Amino acid sequence: MPLIYYYDLMSQPCRALYIFLKITGIPFEGKQVALRKLEHMTDEYAQINPFKKVPVIDDSGFILTESVAIFMYLCDKYKINNWFPTDLKERARVNEYANWQHFNLRATGSMLFRTKIITPRMTNKPPNERELEKWHQQWQESTNGLESVWLARSSYLGGDHLTIADLLGICELMQPIAAGYELDKEKFPRVHDWMERVKRETQPFFNQAHAMPMRLRDTLLKNEKSKL
């Protein structure tokens, strides 16, 4: 029985896991859960994940939530040691980033996206500009953490090669970009170069996973341009 994967590609960790499953060749059956239609809030889905979030995997009846835990489980089960090293110190670096991101890059990028896209659609009101500025500034500070710490000591977030930390990181960075924001290449040259490397090394699956977010970005920029 193949792994069952519940996901929505508008979710950052869902995209990261989708890329990982594709690039490693782990067989899976995809079950899309449309967040925009509130399919994750149904009683039926609550039987799968009581927290009503994605992603989730069902491995022959073993149901696991939380993206980082899923990554670790799959790497250990399939012995994919290049993505989640077995060396104690190398693994600790990956774990260090995976723990750091929750209240930094993930939190700030998610709130920027929510303030720009989700809340206005739910309330039928324009974005709160003060809130946008606050979250944009905090997103910039988190991005500077990548520039001045993580990528200052190694070429990838978890060391000298691609790991699950990089998939988690780049998909979080892409969320505000999907909302129409830009990465400042002059301010964050290491981050820019790292993103280009990760994209290149994960094709064609990176583009597949980000097709929907990029369509959203194109629509937003087109609408903003038409208002000028």
Automatic annotation (TrEMBL):
Keywords: Cytoplasm, Transferase. Residues 87-221 form the GST C-terminal domain. InterPro entries: Glutathione-S-Trfase_C-like (IPR010987), Glutathione-S-Trfase_C_sf (IPR036282), Glutathione_S-Trfase (IPR040079), Glutathione_S-Trfase_N (IPR004045), GST_C (IPR004046), GST_N_Theta (IPR040075), GST_Theta (IPR051369), Thioredoxin-like_sf (IPR036249). Belongs to the GST superfamily. One of its GO terms (molecular function) is glutathione transferase activity. Residues 1-82 form the GST N-terminal domain. PROSITE patterns: GST_CTER, GST_NTER. The keyword Transcription does not apply. It comes from Rotaria magnacalcarata. The keyword Cytoplasm applies. This is Glutathione transferase.
